[in-house]
Amino acid sequence: MAHTQEATNVTVRESKYTVRELPDGFTIDASDRPRVTVTLHPTYLSVDWQYAGELRPRFHDIDRHRISPLHYNGLLQSVARGLMRDWEPPEGRSKWRDARGWAVIQTRGAIGKRVHQQWQRFLAQVDPKVVAVHRAVYAATLRVGGLAFCEALYEHDYIVNDVTNYRAAAVWGPRITAAGDHDFLGTTLHSHVSTLILHQLYSLEVFRAEKGEHL
Length: 215
Fold this sequence. Notes:
By secondary structure, the protein is an alpha+beta fold. It contains seven helices and eight strands, in the order E-E-E-E-E-E-E-E-H-H-H-H-H-H-H.
C-alpha cells in the first residue's frame, strides 16, 4: 500500500507488518501472516508463533526457542521465520532453489528496523549480570544457552564471577549436561561447590522444561 504526501509530493510505501508494543515484549503480524510474539524474560527472549489462537514455542528444544537478549540477529531470524512459516512460492515457481530462504531474507529486511528498535528497548532492561555472563559465554562458545538462561544461576555471585572471569567456566558451566561434565567442571572452576550447584540447577531447568513451565 502506498500513499502520497501532498506537501512534498513524495511517495511513501507503508509496511504490511503491524508491530504492537507490549510492556514486556511485542507482537508482529500481517493480514496474510501468522502472529509472532516476542517476550522479554529476566535471562532470555522467547519467540512464540501463533497456532490456532494458541501461543507455542518457536522450537520444541528447550534452548532453541529461547534467545539471548544480546543476540539481535538471532531474534530477527526467528521472527522472520515465524512470519513466513506458512509461506509457499507462487504457482509455477515452487522449484526455486531455497525460495523459502530468500523469502525469509526479504522479510528480515522489511521488519529489521522495527525489530531493532524493540531489541534496544529490551537490552536497556536486562540485568548487567546477565549481560556479562552472556557475553562471556558467547565469546567462549559462539552460542548462548543452557544454564545461561537459568535465573537461579545469577543468585550466586561467585558462579557469575567464575563464568565472567574464567573461560573454562564460560565453556562448561552453561553447557553442563551429565555427570561426566560435572567431573571435568570440578577441575576448572575454583569452587567445587559451584560445580554441584550448576549441575543441580541444570537438572531443575530440564525438569521444568519437560513440564512445560517455560513454554
